[in-house]
Design a protein that fits this description.
Elements (H helix, E strand, L loop, with lengths): L3 E7 L13 H7 L2 H7 L3 E7 L18 H20 L3 E6 L5 H6 L7 E6 L20 H5 L5 H4 L13 E6 L4 H10 L2 E4 H7 L1 H14 L4 E7 L21 H14 L2 E7 L10 H13 L6
Parallel strand pairs: 1-2, 1-3, 3-8, 4-5, 4-7, 5-6, 7-8
């Protein structure tokens, strides 16, 4: 991981229906992310927030693609910002916002021709307009990044898939829709559900995940971490909490092992919703995990 970091805030809540997640970047900054990274010896350039226009409530919505225009606009801007950070040899650290922003982040990582993706999440986020039960685009970013879905989403920044199915690893899944199950099997995507984490332990899961990506010969690895990947006991301020998730300590262990692997080339933390939170607890957990990912140790 480059010792120079570019923080990019994306205050967007257009990918889903619950208000408040647009304040996530501010909450994470307030929890001290810049100071945490600087204390670890990183040079931090806070790029500020992408400008997100507050659109009036539409009387008519595409129920299979909620807020399509707004998501396309936000993700297009983000892709440009991420590409700029990579070209400046800075590690992009994207702060969300809901998980639909990952469409823009992955589109901006065009420099990597064999990109690996670690999706740390309670959900698979691999729905398409045909399979979605909600129409929320924050449940579609992995599918879009595979080139599946609406052409306006799959062509953001550049046309075609942004990542190969065989280079994706989902960790912590415990709420997967039927259409997602079928697509995961069809594409043979590697998934470690909570069953595997409970049975094997986080150490074995992360060792296997790291070996898998090393064997794939990836030239970079993007970590996309949804705070609902953790059990809501630790992260109450998320929009779609699912009980029975990854523990606080297991999450730190995963971040520490990724840091030791020296594989991570870009990062995003998403779905912090201060309105639903308890005294900024979820944002504080996000910053603590960022610390471990960027090399903070206990001694």
């Amino acid at each position: 991981m480059n010792k120079s970091v570019a923080i990019i805030g994306v205050p967007s809540d257009y990918g889903q229906r619950r208000r408040g997640v647009d304040m996530g970047p501010s909450a994470i900054r307030y929890a001290g992310v810049v100071e945490r990274l600087e204390a670890l010896g990183y040079t931090v350039k806070d790029e500020g927030d992408i400008r997100v226009e507050k659109a009036p409530v539409k009387q008519e919505q595409n129920e299979k693609l909620l807020n399509l225009d707004e998501v396309v606009e936000v993700c297009s801007k983000l892709a440009q910002k991420v590409e700029g950070a990579v070209n400046d040899k800075r590690t992009p650290l994207v702060l969300g916002g809901d998980h639909s922003i990952a469409i823009g982040t992955l589109a901006g990582l065009e420099k990597y021709k064999n990109l690996g993706v670690i999706w740390f999440d309670a959900h698979a986020d691999i729905n398409t307009p045909e399979s979605t039960p909600s129409g929320n685009i924050h449940g579609m970013p992995l599918a879009v990044s595979l080139g599946l879905g609406h052409e306006r989403l799959t062509s953001i920044h550049h046309a075609g898939p942004k990542v190969k199915a065989e280079n994706i690893i989902i960790i912590g899944a415990r709420s997967v829709d039927e259409g997602e199950r079928e697509l995961i099997k069809e594409k043979n995507i590697k998934v470690y559900t909570m069953h595997e984490i409970d049975r094997l332990g986080m150490t074995a899961v992360m060792e296997d995940a790291i070996r898998y990506l090393q064997k794939r010969g990836v030239d970079g690895v993007h970590l996309s971490l949804d705070l609902d990947g953790l059990d809501p006991l630790y992260t109450p301020g998320v929009g779609t909490p699912v009980a029975g998730g990854i523990t606080y300590r297991e999450s730190h262990l995963a971040m520490e092992m990724l840091q030791e692997s020296e594989m991570i080339s870009s990062v995003e933390f998403v779905e912090v919703n201060p309105i639903l939170d308890d005294k900024n607890k979820t944002a504080n957990v996000a910053v603590a995990l960022i610390g471990s990912l960027f090399g903070e140790t206990l001694v």
